[in-house]
Fold this protein.
Amino acid sequence: RYFNSKKFGRKKKKKTKMKNNLERKIRGNKTFYFDNFELSISTGTQFLCVDDLYCLKNIIEKTLRVVDFRYYTQISLSIVTPGEIRDLNNRFRGIDRVTDVLSFPLDMETGILGDVVICKKVCTKQAKLYGNSFQRELMYLTCHSILHLMGYDHMNKRDKRIMRDLEKQVMRDI
């Protein structure tokens, strides 16, 4: 039946515009718990969108699955400015320049995989340079860094090929 809500003294509910996930921001320090890992995100003066979190969850799960990592683990991810990543790169690697991502492995034996540090500004620039979305570049850098945390490297041709093959396997269908 159709009735006029004014006639019966009912107020019509106001329609509230729901923010989409691109408008909802993750700021500060937050920890998210998933089936096989926990992800602690620190954004400092930067931010991520909720959709970025879903992308991170998916790429971390896929990376762990591709390398057959079956243990519950902890991963820390920091989103930083160019100045912050330059300082870290200089302090820990002796290279005084901005980079896209740094990896700091901790102790897989205790279940703490390590720290991932991503420069949002460089990630954004590289996404444009390679014709990718920010989220796709964020996923690639996260995959790359997680592989470093697990001991993979690209310092010689053989190791580089192994790591690139794993990255391609993880990034396939994304």
Observations:
- Residues 50-66 form the longest helix (17 residues).
- The chain has a mean pLDDT of 88.
- The chain has five helices and seven strands.
- Strands lie at 25-26, 29-33, 37-42, 48-49, 73-80, 101-107, 112-119.
